[in-house]
Amino acid sequence: MLITGIKSRPVYDLLRPLPGGKRHIVAGQGSGGRAMLRLLDELADLGQQATLLYSEESFSGQNFLAQLQQQPAVELRVYASNQALLEDLKGMLGQARMGTRLYLTGSESFLGTAMQVYTAFDMNRDEVLREHSGTLVRRVWCVHCDTYTENVTQRVYQCPGCDLTLVVRDHYSRRLAAFQAVKADAEVPGELPQAEELDT
Amino acid sequence: MTIKFNRDETYRDDYTFANSPETIARVPFPFPDDDYMYSMNLEPHVSVGDGAFRAAFDIDEHYISECRDRAITLEKDPGMHYVSAPHMMEAQWDLLELIMESYARDYPEYFTLEREGRNWHWVNRLLEIDDHFTFGDPATLPFEPMEYITRQAQGDWVLQEERDGTLYWGAGIATQRADYSLRFNLGMSWEEFHGPVPLVKEIGMLDRALKFLLRLRIGHPVRRLNWSLTVNPRLEVSAESLPEWAPDRTIVTPENAGKRVYLRIELQPLHRLPRSNAIVFPIRTYLLSLEDIATNPAWARRMHRVLKTLNQELVDYKGFSRYRDAAVEWLSQYDKEHGKEDEGERKAG
Ligand code: HEM
Known about the structure:
The complex is a heterodimer.
Chain A: E1 23-29, H1 33-45, E2 50-55, H2 65-69, E3 75-79, H3 82-95, E4 100-106, H4 108-120, E5 128-132, E6 138-142, E7 148-152, E8 156-158, E9 165-173, E10 178-183
Parallel strand pairs in A: 1-2, 1-4, 2-3, 4-5, 6-10
Antiparallel strand pairs in A: 6-7, 8-9, 9-10
Chain B: H1 21-26, E1 43-44, H2 63-76, E2 82-84, H3 89-106, E3 111-116, E4 119-124, E5 129-134, H4 145-150, E6 156-163, E7 166-173, H5 182-185, H6 190-193, H7 205-214, E8 222-231, H8 242-245, H9 257-260, E9 261-272, E10 279-289, H10 290-294, H11 297-309, H12 312-318, H13 324-332, H14 336-348
Antiparallel strand pairs in B: 1-8, 2-7, 3-4, 4-5, 6-7, 6-10, 8-9, 9-10
The complex binds protoporphyrin IX containing FE.
């Protein structure tokens, strides 16, 4: 079974103003605030403003709220958690009209769950951009007990659901918004692969 | 043509599964050459001979036992081995129709299908099923149509829907899948679910195969073969149950490899479905122990050469790095010449 070098991980975009947008929704989290600021500048050059959704939940502790508050915007909504932001985004997209453009930026976990939200609304590829930022922490799914673990940084970790020592594969499911992990020492108990940081 | 069915073989625990000489002789042996590499091995799925390529969907002496093993696996972990996206219902009915028509046509002694408009009558004498139902109305069946019919069919079955110029995994029943997770793969695109396979992207094969499949036409199925190795005649070797079966990979020795190591051949006859435009990808698995293979000396010799020279990336991917050498050593008794050549080379060098 292949662990590394699998090609199912998404390729992310750079946020830039999308043409034809009547309403721009920019949703970001933690260090994604940096990409939000850059995008807002570019929108301003085109004379356009956006609705901003920002979650202060951050793995790396980065917070761009103060800078975002300085920006002219249609509206700025702030959330304590990514979950709360995504709930609100769901409501917004539910009422969105034609011409909505969605911009997402933040950790891979955040982008993955946000993609689940907008996929449910059938948005087209040319209506959404995703920019990854910050550390490459992963949301991981345990194939054995169905537990999701957020913010995994190590190739080998212990599953909080079933206690098995798992190895994270570079295999990603957009539906589950998660990487897959399998028992690391399945063949010979105790024979573990090399521990390493997940930085690729 | 009558088949003598093995009614109570097991694919787990005591592993009483065994092939008769007739069944061994009719498997689709997957090695056309002494060395093996992935290739665009797709050919029209036309009826040839009276072996595994005669029927649209082949059945053999293991039919009854294999259906029972599927039922056990499904019961053990609901939601893990059968999944379907809600919008796949039309494709499910397409599949039910295709399997019923094919079985009834190719095996009239075991299956009968009678139709009056939407009122269908299905008889499966092997599993003692006699059901009336309304085609298109899921409430008239005890399971969703795909699960209903594939509980009565050998092999795994996957439904792919075509969108945006690629294929997406829409549904599947997979109680004998080799080392992947069905729930994880649901909703994935062609490129994504093939992500773990080594080399195929680099050699351009994945793109070519996809282009080929997108042109697949109703009534013109194609087939290909794939293969792997498993320790013991175990069908359920999913990623989920890895901790149960992966330890078996350490017990193979040059002495017991003949009995323990099984060649796992997958016959994959792909069909375009008429109403939904989906593609069905069946994976019909044949298990042969190395001892079974050795009943045909030409096969044993070839298999020895294939395993011995197989690219290490494929060995790792297929999961037999730990026992490749033991299997090769056991097979070498059927390929004395090949051994000598090697020694000659070594002496000369
Ligand atoms: C739509 C139909 C198909 C489906 C659903 C499918 C699905 C899969 C899956 C699930 C795997 C295992 C991946 C893993 O390890 O996680 C696989 C492996 C593979 N597939 Fe496909 N496949 C399809 C058609 C094809 C075709 C037409 C070709 C080539 C012409 C192909 C070539 C391969 C190869 C070479 C492997 C590696 C097999 C091995 O070494 O055991 N597939 N496929």
